[in-house]
User: Fold these one by one.
Assistant:
Number 1:
Amino acid sequence: MRAVDLIAKKRDGGTLTSAEIAWLITGYVTGDIPDYQMSAWAMAVVLRGMDDRETADLTMAMARSGDMLDLHDLVPLTVDKHSTGGVGDKTTLLLAPMVAAVGLPVAKMSGRGLGFSGGTVDKLESIPGLRTNLSAEEFRRLVREVGLVVAAQSGDLAPADKKLYALRDVTATVESIPLIAASVMSKKLAAGADCIVLDVKYGSGAFMHTLTDARTLARTMVAIGSHAGRRVSAILSSMQQPLGFAIGNALEVREAIGALRGGGPADLVELCMTLGSQLVQMAKLRPCAESARALLREALDSGAAWATFTQMIAAQGGDLAFVENPDRLPTAPAQIVLPAPRSGYVATIDGQTLGLVCNTLGGGRARKTDSIDHRVGLVLAAKVGDWVAEGAPLLSIHAANSEDAQGVAPRLLSAYIIADEPVTAPALIEEIVTVS
Ligand code: URA
């Protein structure tokens, strides 16, 4: 086989066989197929799509490109969660300890920033000392000893996705239902969890702009997971505005710490309750959403989730002094307030623009080799539906210097629509998708 022929086949709208997909993925992982051919192929998939069989084959080829963990010799059951990507999405930092604190071991492999969306691994690495590059052996040990581990993809687990994910981030090949489905599910299947909840986001701050596309993505992933013998459900959640108030790596860690200590934004906490209650029910710890939520609420209110979070941070090498006193986390030297240009109700906050601005400030990558600035980002002062007076703060910009901060102000203003009439905030949770 030749990569160029498979690129052309997909470019022309053809369907790749299972053997062709397996060959492509193996060749990419071994280095026989270079980045430039793989990115051309990924772009062909973005433009031409893949059918369900091709998507399932791609998922399995990427999952099997490294170790497939089986954690049953350590614990009877593990749970996992994954988001399809959004702006201000620090859900894992709150949800994973909440769920682990009620006794469900969380074995999670997370991603770095992707396109305009942030990634949990980049966020966690704002905590000095914290390591996310764990070997399969360490991953297993932390599941056993702490009951919670959040790792980056090591060379051992789904290495094909690790490589392709980094390539897609910088080649404008993220927005594709089959590529996202295969990327998410290959990691989830390789990490070995029995119960998986997927947070499938839609809206301007997500890769799926419409509810219809998000539903298709959710159904595709739920079908792949259940076919592989896992219990899976998906929540369709709104990214019609950023989640919580903070956008940017260290800023989001601070917000998540606040939530674990009882002061979290209502939308973030509600999303975690909904996702967590799916896991608690799938694991058969509680029979209904109401009792599952009560259990999770208790874990949050009692401080058990916070204690579990700090154990995880310490076990992964993080310096607890920075977590216990989050003011010590990396902080941007320049902070300026963006005032509202007029009085009215906030009608629209375009998450994608805010995410891209965060990248421009240094919070994301333009090339695979770029390092990121954990300090920078944005903090909203108002959400959709809020009334703002002209000149009152709309958000604050956290930048490496005041020139950078001033430079992004016009783009930020273009992300907002302020209306005269009251506006109803969009519903956070649209639907729960389970196996059909
Ligand atoms: N999250 C992933 O892990 N992969 C994607 O492609 C998108 C979101």
Number 2:
Amino acid sequence: MNIGMIGLGQMGEPMALNLLKAGHQLLLCDINASAVERVVVAGQGQAQAIATPKEIAEMAPNYIISMLPSSPHVQEVYLGEQGLLMGKLSKATFFIDCSTIDPKVSRLVREAAGHSGLAMVDAPVSGGTGAAKDGTLTFMVGGTDAEFAQVKPILELMGKNIVHCGPSGNGQVAKVANNMLLAVTMIGVSEAMCLGTQLGMDPTVLAGIINTSSGRCWSSDTYNPYPGVNPNAPASRDYQGGFSNQLMLKDVMLATEAAKAVNQPTPLASLAQVVYQTIYNQGLGDLDFSSVIKLFQKN
Ligand code: NAD
């Protein structure tokens, strides 16, 4: 099949590599030319660079997948002057947006695609860069039953759990709720690891206790913020790669904004927003979000 892929960052690149592995032909676009070049080289003739989203859409691939940082990027890529919905479109193309964005924006873009007679689902992911590489992501899909049935086989090439969350935008709702919790658990694990080590515990022994006790969570057992505890986690490589503080701040803000719209109290999310804003303001926006532990470490 022909698949367009727009956004080849921390997540988009390994997802594209899994589609190549499954034998598909890729049409690639990213404003970062070196990211595109890496996948073109890996594709050995199976992948080509295309200048704009509009040109990709005009080439009428079966699917177009977007994996972009946030709502404004998705609006630009779909609705901008050189956007996917601006060219001559084939009704056979199916859009899948895997970015984490505002559910309202997701529904708006889906409506615009619908006006052009095209199908679209929101399918944000969970699992991090490790799961993107291993093809074990969780996809949270918003769309009709028929749309879900159509995208499931493609998403299975990149993920292990493909979940239908309800109508358009509900994939984003699930994702925002999950990441609000992740933001909070990472801060909690950071505090616990700092407290325990300050009081004399070995960090690996402490993490082992937490991970076989009631404090266990993904932030403690898979993505521990303390350097050296999980050798494959960003904490063990100076917080490079992974999921940036900037993107986590965006997700917590999506959660607090969505909460306001329905008068739902989310006090810990509000506190987490202040914490991630603080680390972002310190110039550490590009580091993985587990670097939030730096706010609690004593020199
Ligand atoms: P990233 O910043 O590493 O990658 C985004 C890519 O989009 C970059 O290569 C950038 O150049 C490209 N891009 C931006 N604007 C563009 C445009 N107008 N046209 C074409 N390309 C454009 O981000 P990421 O970490 O890959 O995250 C992508 C999305 O997935 C985000 O919404 C994030 O919240 C979500 N997410 C990330 C992780 C993670 O662990 N990194 C996990 C789950 C979900």
